[in-house]
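Email to the structure team, subject: ASCH domain-containing protein model.

Hi all, the expression group asked for a predicted structure before they design truncation constructs. Nothing fancy, just the tokens so they can compare against earlier work. One-line instruction: predict ASCH domain-containing protein, return tokens.
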Amino acid sequence: MTVEEFWQQFKATHPDVTTNMYDAYAFFDADTLAHLVKIGRKTATTSALDLYDVNDARPQVGEYSIVLDGQDQPVCVTQTKVVETVPFDLVSTEHAYHEGEGDRTLAYWRDVHRKVFKSFYQQMGREFNEQIPCLCEVFERVD
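Reply from the structure team: attached below.
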């Protein structure tokens, strides 16, 4: 099923959704993280604000997203509930828990995100530090 077909099927079963606007994306570890969203364990994500291109849309409260697996197949629909910018070193224990990964601790979150962000920063010719601005998003799976 294409992403657009998936969206239309979602809208057909959710008549209260009147928008045709949605985003579709895959996480860094697409299959694993899409599964965590689908089973309700992952209800948050974090991205490095500095790595957004000026033309990239940033998550917005109320918007819908289609989470894709590693083969770019739609898995589920989420709706963004909270978006806040927080320095890397001030991301909360609660947010790390809601990301749903590993043992759900802040230590695990920092270890994984530090490695991923360092790699992304390096690819962009930039240097990672513990004060980089992070976009912390909380979402709800709605289908």
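The longest helix spans residues 106-123. The longest strand covers residues 74-87. Ping us if the truncation boundaries need rechecking.
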